[in-house]
Design goal:
The protein is an alpha+beta fold. The protein folds into three domains: 249 residues, Jelly Rolls, CATH 2.60.120; 98 residues, Phosphorylase Kinase, domain 1, CATH 3.30.200; 241 residues, Transferase(Phosphotransferase), domain 1. The protein contains 14 helices and 29 strands. Strands 1, 3, 4, 7, 14, 15, 16 and 18 form an eight-stranded antiparallel sheet that branches. The longest helix is centred in the middle third of the chain and has 25 residues. It binds 2-acetamido-2-deoxy-beta-D-glucopyranose (6 copies).
Length: 667
């Protein structure tokens, strides 16, 4: 009898606990038992550190218990209110990644989510799907055009996907009007998220920590959450990093269902690490006279040393560059990061110079530093402006450009380090590791979407000018990332306008490009065509054969003409490939290599063909002919100024000898 009673009482208590309106407050997380995953940690002083300065990672923190938002599955979603204080600290003052989101999720954790632009919330396949049942308020610090972001500093309301239902630039309304806020400033800011279950209204308000809650919210959206979310949900935070070391902190958090959350006590919140933290030098005690004598010599030595160093690390900085502060790296840092540009750190000799691996001194960021020798200062201003603008390009299939440094006769470009090197190493010269068809097809689609982004999705049209397998780098997950964009332009700016110097690489140059010297999106498409064939066939566009240069596009064309285009495919693929996909890529390669730039597809179409949501036109109707495919007729070759920058020295002699043999042998 008494046990029965106990059971009843316990089950009653449990029910009460579950249906009771959840309310909690953390003024610091010292003794909080939040459920953490990814790289999230709680520091010894009680800061919730969602990310800690590791690249391409995510961090989650959830209130450990489920929160009941509906009493039954068809009742209304309850009102709730929450506020939290956050801060974002990045290694660079104007670059960061990727932001923080307050989330309400059906499960405690988001195990399948991706870092970077996915904010640790979704992945490529489930983004935007209503079965996610996820609500989020994002504080996003990177503009991802694929999700329609308005800028790189905004707050947005997300329901089941990263394309915000509503978003506004970060800021708040005060008596003096709208005040901008920079999310990545490193300062503490407070966020309020409120949902009124009767009015079906979501309000998001943002303010600096020392400012009272503004009356007008930054974001206000009328939307009934009931159909989107489940009865029992988990609440927490998600954050992710991309290519820039960034720490995302939450200092305090208060939450309540059906009522106003308790006010956070600012004075009780933990302190952020001091900016530019440095160890105090230890003072040691030695006799005073001793010190003064050694001091004298020390001063002399130091002066000599400083003078020598100054020369060693001298840079060129002009007035116009001061605006680019954060994108400029110190030569000294680059020098030390690459151990003095040591031969051992050499990653390769790329298109325009030598590339070294480096580890930045303080941040430990892994970078690739490209040294481009450049005597001409003409056009440098425009070029650097372009580099800085390119540095703002963000796409998962582009190698992020972090910044630059300039010295006399030398330009240094700093890129994110790509651990798996360039794609060409996996394709020809008896590669040690070859890629499966699936991997290749994914890389092709990635590069196509990056090129589409450059041509059509970014504010300005960016022409790459040097697409080829050796400019496609593979990141840790073997995603293809296009590198070296815009570099060819440096040589365009710098050259004498009287002579048309064509920059690019032989075999990838469109005929009209060699003729007019003008690079266009169609000449990029031409090079992309050569790249497609290269990846599918595992051969260079121009291969030194038994009897002179063998041109890949001609070979594929002949196979197609014979009715067996698949014969052209890479023998290393073995039997593990999808014939329809290989055929599509080969045919698309021919299509993009069409001699008439007007007939070549646009990258938008190329993407549709690759994704199979549009059939490719019949090749036989496109008036392809062998001579029309190759990169030029004899006469054009005569005018051709071979200013190509192939990937290695060996290549250079190789390519020019091919050009010669073509000239002498004719076709
Ligand atoms: C960041 O977190 C990761 C994973 O917990 C850890 O391995 C790494 O040492 C941390 N880094 C710093 C700088 O605390
Ligand atoms: C959330 O609700 C949907 C629809 O009722 C259901 O299919 C799903 O399993 C629920 N998710 C969880 C984690 O309970
Ligand atoms: C994306 O997430 C879903 C769960 O929401 C998971 O089932 C799926 O496997 C994930 N896809 C990838 C490519 O990771
Ligand atoms: C949404 O996800 C479900 C289950 O993961 C899947 O069956 C469905 O096809 C997806 N819908 C869309 C539009 O992708
Ligand atoms: C606030 O930011 C916007 C761009 O987001 C800018 O146009 C505006 O000039 C800024 N206002 C102030 C006062 O800085
Ligand atoms: C849900 O809310 C609406 C108005 O806010 C109200 O009319 C309706 O009765 C509520 N439904 C339930 C099941 O409580």
């Amino acid at each position: 009898m008494s046990t029965k009673l106990a059971v009843i009482i316990i089950s009653l208590l449990v029910k009460l606990a579950i249906s009771g309106d959840t309310s909690f407050i953390y003024n610091g997380f010292q003794s909080a038992n939040l459920a953490l995953d990814g790289i999230a940690e709680i520091t010894s002083n009680g800061l919730l550190e969602l990310t800690n300065g590791t690249k391409q990672q995510k961090g989650h923190a959830f209130y450990p218990n489920p929160v009941v938002f509906k009493t039954s599955s068809n009742s209304n979603f309850s009102s709730f209110s929450t506020s939290f204080v956050f801060a974002i600290r990045s290694e660079y003052p104007t670059l960061s990644g990727h932001g923080i989101a307050f989330v309400i999720t059906p499960t405690r954790g988001l195990p399948f989510s991706l870092p970077s632009q996915y904010l640790g919330l979704f992945n490529e396949t489930n983004n935007g799907n209503d079965t996610n049942r996820v609500f989020a308020v994002e504080l996003d610090t990177i503009m991802s055009s694929e999700f329609g972001d308005i800028n790189d500093n905004h707050a947005g309301i997300d329901i089941n996907g990263l394309k915000s239902v509503k978003s506004e630039p970060a800021g708040y309304y005060s008596d003096g009007g709208f005040q901008n806020l920079s999310l990545i400033s490193g300062y503490e800011m407070k966020v309020w998220v409120e949902y009124d279950g009767t009015k079906k209204q979501i309000d998001v308000t943002l303010a600096p920590i020392n400012v009272e809650k503004p009356e007008t919210p930054l974001l206000s959206l009328t939307r009934d959450l009931s159909p989107y979310l489940n009865s029992t949900m988990y609440v927490g935070f998600s954050s992710s990093t991309g290519s820039v070391l960034t720490s995302h902190y939450i200092l305090g958090w208060s939450f309540r269902v059906n009522g106003k959350e308790q006010e956070l006590v600012i004075s009780k919140l933990p302190k952020l690490p001091r900016l530019g933290e440095k160890e105090e030098p230890k003072i040691f005690t030695i006799g005073l006279p001793m010190i003064s004598v050694s001091l004298f010599f020390l001063v002399i030595l130091t002066v000599l040393h400083v003078m020598k160093r100054k020369k060693k690390f001298a840079e060129l900085v002009e007035d116009w560059e001061l605006d680019y502060g954060p994108h400029r790296f110190k030569y000294k840092d680059l020098y030390f990061s690459t151990k003095g540009f040591r031969e051992k750190e050499l990653l390769g000799t790329g298109g325009f110079g030598r590339v070294y691996k480096g580890i930045m001194p303080i941040s430990k960021l892994e970078v690739a530093v490209k040294r481009v020798s450049h005597e001409s200062r003409q056009g440098m201003k425009e070029f650097v402006a372009e580099i800085v603008s390119i540095g703002r390009l963000r796409h998962r299939n582009l190698v992020p450009l972090l910044g630059y440094c300039r010295r006399k006769g030398e330009l240094l470009l700093v890129y994110d380090y790509m651990p798996n090197g360039s794609l060409d190493k996996y394709l020809y010269n008896n590669p040690r590791v070859t890629l499966s068809w699936n991997q290749r097809f994914r890389i092709i689609k990635g590069v196509a979407s990056a090129l589409f982004y450059l041509h059509e999705e970014w504010d300005q049209v960016v022409i790459h000018r040097d697409i080829k397998a050796s400019n496609v780098l593979l990141d840790a997950e073997l995603n293809g990332r296009l590198g070296d964009f815009g570099l060819a332009r440096l040589y365009d700016h710098g050259t004498d306008p009287q002579t048309t110097h064509v920059v690019g690489t032989l075999g990838y140059l469109a005929p009209e490009h060699t003729r007019t010297g003008r690079a266009t999106t169609s000449s990029d498409v031409y090079a992309f065509g050569a790249f497609l064939l290269e990846v599918a066939c595992g051969r260079r566009p121009i291969e030194q054969g038994e009897n002179g240069g063998e041109i890949l596009v001609d070979f594929v064309y002949c196979c197609w003409k014979r009715g067996d285009i698949l014969e052209a495919k890479d023998v290393n693929l073995g039997a593990d490939y999808r014939a329809d996909e290989v055929e599509l890529v080969l045919k698309l390669g021919l299509f993009c290599s069409h001699s008439d730039p007007v007939i070549r597809p646009k990258m938008r179409q190329v993407l549709h063909y690759l994704q199979r949501d549009m059939p490719m036109p019949d090749l036989s109707l496109l008036c392809l002919s062998s001579s029309g495919l190759t990169f030029g007729h004899r006469e054009e070759l005569d005018d051709f100024v071979p200013m190509s920058y192939p990937s290695t020295e060996r290549d250079f002699s190789h390519a020019s000898s091919v050009a010669e043999s073509l000239l002498s042998g004719g076709r």
